[in-house]
Amino acid sequence: MNKFLLLTATIVGTAASLAPAAHAQGIGLGVGIKAGGNASRLAGDVANKDYYTTRYGGHGGLLLNVSFLKDGMLSVQPEVLFSQRGYQIDNPTAKVGNSTYTLKGTSSYNYLDIPLLIKFKLKSFYVEAGPQYSRLLHVKDEERYLLNGNQASHSNTEPSLARVNRNEMSLTAGLGVQTSYGLLIGLRYNGSFTEFAQRFYHNNELANARFSVFQASVGYLLKLK
């Protein structure tokens, strides 16, 4: 959280310091805020892939937009976002004698995302794409064991980060609408090409797993120049 606040202050301070120079050189400058939802799941060569389903979470943060052409047609947009990813666990029911056993659960991964996007806007419509660096902040696992359909046990754990790759690189692309009043409505896809699990994490079932995330967001962009 301290890192997130520091990066937030850096974006605001940078925007304030660059505004006079941007005005003098004809460069457009804006700052904004955005928030929305995530739908994430595992991609890659994952053992027992059907056991892992979509997890829904949220994201939110700040953005800085620097435009180089008239009416903001071409711009660069770095962002700092807090983002929730993960997956649901839904193992098939196993039958032993007259009893049935089922494992269900949720694994939650909280990240600090820093995308750097090239944005092309035509009137109110825009497309964007670029790389993203992410830093894993926290992991939480929740598991429920069901015996004959009834909950037999429940656990909440915070696994060690020692067996996951805390640094992640991915590619982001999206599209959306930006009105003349600064309202932002966007859809975005983020595909990681970094395997997040190391050896022996979750019995090695996730050794080749990567996150695949769809995002929907709303925001507001304030033009400083």
TrEMBL record:
Leader peptide range in chain numbering: 1-24
Species whose genome carries this gene: Hymenobacter crusticola
Protein name: Outer membrane protein beta-barrel domain-containing protein
Database matches in Pfam families: OMP_b-brl_2
Domain Outer membrane protein beta-barrel: from-to ranges: 24-195
Record keywords, A-Z: Signal
